[in-house]
Amino acid sequence: MADEETTAETPADEPAADAPATEEPTADEPTAEEPPAPAAPEPVEVLHPKERRRRARQRSSEGPGEARTPEQRKAERDALRAKNSKARATRRAKLRARRPKATASAPAEPAERERGAQKVRQGIVVSDKAAKTITVRIDTSRRHRRYKKIVRSSKTLHAHDEHNEAHEGDLVRVIETRPLSATKRWRLVEILERAR
């Protein structure tokens, strides 16, 4: 009868002592409604490029115990070279396909290589003392890109004068040519104006 009184005294709303009680969430544990707090990012290890490559080689190698023979290494190198060569050939073929085709009127392959256009300069003879050589001063003036001021500059060059026609003060035209001496790479074309 005492047992009946104790069971009668405990109200139905209260849970029994041996039944597990529902725990209230503590501050440490996240509830279902609250999202978990983001974890602090791990510090990133900054490696020197050489160390990075060394570690990558370690990861890619088959194993530390397996030593490869020189023949195996050579075979791997040859396979890699063949693969790269094939990729280069494919790329070049694509570039050739993109290039415009030669027209029927233009010759496909010139029999002789055409000479490039030689530079032509005009300047004043500052010296004609050397035999078959004149020193020509080329004056240039151009506008500065940023400051728009006219910038004047001059350059001297040596030109070949076969017949010693030009004299100091003459205005002459010279053309680029093959190296004729240690400093001569120009040739006299014509005398535009004689010195007075």
CATH architecture of the domain at 120-193: Beta Barrel
Average pLDDT metric: 82
**Strand line-up of the largest beta sheet:** 1-2-3-5-4
Ends apart, CA distance between termini: 149 Å
- The amount of beta strand, in percent, is 15-25%
Number of DSSP helical runs = 3
Helix-strand topology string: HHHEEEEE
List keywords for this structure.
single chain; 196 residues; alpha+beta; OB fold (Dihydrolipoamide Acetyltransferase, E2P); five-stranded mixed beta barrel; 3 helices; 5 strands; 25% helix; 23% strand
Verbal overview:
The protein has a domain at 120-193: OB fold (Dihydrolipoamide Acetyltransferase, E2P) (Beta Barrel). Helices cover 25% and strands 23% of the residues. The protein has three helices and five strands; from the N terminus they run αααβββββ. It has helices at residues 2-9, 49-60, 70-98, and strands spanning 120-127, 133-143, 150-160, 171-176, 184-193. The chain has a five-stranded mixed β-barrel with strand order 1-2-3-5-4. The longest helix has 29 residues, at 70-98. The relative contact order is 0.08.
Provide the fold topology:
Blueprint: H1 2-9, H2 49-60, H3 70-98, E1 120-127, E2 133-143, E3 150-160, E4 171-176, E5 184-193
